[in-house]
Amino acid sequence: MTAQSPAGAPQPRRLIVVGSGIAGLYAALLAAEAGTEVVLLTKGALADSNTYFAQGGISAVLDEPAPGDTVAAHIADTLKAGAGHCNEDAVRVLCTEARLDIAGLQRFGVRFDLDEDGDPALGLEAAHSAPRILHAGGDATGAGVARALIRAVLEVQEAGRIQVIGHAQVTSVLQGGGRVSGVNFLHNGGEFGVHGDAVLLATGGAGQLFAQTTNPAVATADGLALAWRAGAAVADLEFFQFHPTCMVPPAGAREAGSTAEPLLISEAVRGEGAILVDVNGERFMPRYHPDAELAPRDVVSRCIYLHLAALGDPNGHVFLDARGLEASRGQGFLAKRFPTITAGTRAAGIDWTRELVPVAPAAHYWMGGVVTDLQGRTSVPGLLAAGEVACTGVQGANRLASNSLLEGLVFGRRAVEAFLAGSPRDTDAPRAVSGPWQFETVPAPGPVETNLATPGAFSRKALRRVMTAHAGVIRDGALLREASVALGAWAAGVVPLHAPDSLEAREHEDANLLLAAQLLVHAAQERRESLGAHHRSDSRTRAAAVEPFDQRYTMSRKASLVHD
Ligand code: SIN
User: Fold this and answer.
1) Same domain for 222 and 291?
2) Which of 77, 138, 290, 507 measures 20 to 30 Å from 553, CA to CA?
3) CB-ligand 1 contact for 267 (6 Å cutoff)
4) Based on the domain organization, do 404 and 264 belong to the same domain?
5) 433 within some domain
């Protein structure tokens, strides 16, 4: 519906986009291109997003048939990695429409790396049956994508079609007349409101829930909390993916009090042939899974965890050995193909062409989130969501490598298409969008034996410790109960159910994190069986999860394509 101005000129409809990762930037550009007035709010600078740190790339089958690859194979790999828990319709949309949005990115100035023939250079990553990962700047894909999209957004802002408001912490979603009508946000020490015809949440994830994470400081579950408080359905929150290879600062650096940011060692490094070894120099992955280092991410993280426990060092680390790549591909290969990791390891005092890199699993990606349909519509009319904050079901119980930037693109565009479809009702959710449970159903915790009965005062550090120790790579009923008690005790002070009455952004983030932690722990308690990234050591499927690992999810790899 188009409103009329007093002079009779049609007023463009307004879309409010919250978040400046790939989903938010791309959606803002598409909406502005279609004549929509766009207000883009981001809580830091435009580059402060998970997208910016993505290394590996974006998976896509660019042609059909592609040499040695098919969309059907991409679909099958995504479903397998997702442990049978994916929404197959969403996966089909994701893989089929990928090439459309890769072209969209290129239109906005994104350039991917090319091979010697001038064709896109395609990498292989774990659990992909063929090389299909587009990358930029070697291992700086996210930065390359984000920079190009930010440049395009700033140009459109210059032309007056997007208004960017940086350092804006959204505090609540406004509703009126049965639908979303805008947001409130903190900015420059004050609280403001902005009205619009729909709000698209593209706020990313929540890695800050855990002690070790690959995510930047901005990943504090804001969108999930905003949506939940607005009454939106959420789902699959028990599925939080831990990336197997986050660099652990070497002991010397730790002792010297290094506060260096965690460094992700991309899946693509194992895709190129690097292996994992333990403290004894032994390669251990083949003992656990036939796909060894190229097994799905949840499997590799769990194997590392179990292997360390078997070695009697559950809080220790293993090593990534990439030395063979330099030997087999020639001197300078690692620096050329992985410049970001080369610089990061060097800054930590490691020459990875000659030395092992200490690595351990770290919280990386939340498969669950705000329930949406295939057009990004949540269960609250006028509230859209896309990217990591959303749960289309496309990632199932464990996301396939390099499918996250792709999800932000494909479903960010689809959300804009729903918005553009004409009537405000087109951003209304169909009745079918509903979550399996609501937070109000959380049972009051009963008395439990716990060493966390008095968890001490709330702090982020304490919250992260509890989540890591009790709801991390491996959980069980008792650990989750203890976590629930600790979170419940903190909730009396931090009160996550309502947005704090505070002008301090950090207080809002704290409340959001605590709410997200409670929701995650509740979901993990409810799912008593292990599935994908949700692994319960008290599950009846435990034996299958240890040896042999679930054979259903091994790859049917096209051997001729691997390491081509
Ligand atoms: C990586 O490069 O390993 C991370 C990419 C992703 O999360 O898919």
Assistant:
1) no
2) 138
3) yes
4) no
5) no
First to last CA, the chain: 53
Q: Is 429 in the pocket of ligand 1 (CB under 6 A)?
A: no
Q: Which amino acid belongs to residue 488?
A: G
Our count of domains for the chain comes to 3
Assess whether 266 and 330 both reside in one domain. yes
CA distance 543 to 537: 9
29 within some domain = yes
Task: Please state the rounded mean pLDDT for residues 216-243.
Answer: 96
Distance in angstroms (rounded) separating the CA atoms of residues 40 and 173: 14
Distance CA 194, CA 402 (A): 34
d(CA 133, ligand 1 centre) in Å: 10
**Residue 20 in contact with residue 48, Cβ under 8 Å?**
yes
- Output the CA–CA distances (angstroms, integers) from residue 219 to 39, 94, 135, 204, 273, in the order listed: 21, 24, 23, 7, 31
CB 555 within 8 A of CB 291: yes
Atom of ligand 1 nearest to the CA of 139: 2
Asked if residue 2 is part of any domain, the answer here is no
| CB of 143 sitting under 6 A from ligand 1 | no
- Radius of gyration over every alpha carbon of the chain, rounded to an integer in angstroms: 23
pLDDT digit string (tens) for 391-425? 999 999 999 999 999 999 999 999 999 999 965 55
pLDDT digits (tens, 9 = 90+) for 462-500: 999 999 999 999 999 999 999 999 999 999 889 888 899
The CATH number covering residue 303 comes to 3.90.700.10
The edge-to-edge listing of strands for the beta sheet with 37-41 is 162-165, 37-41, 14-18, 198-201, 383-385
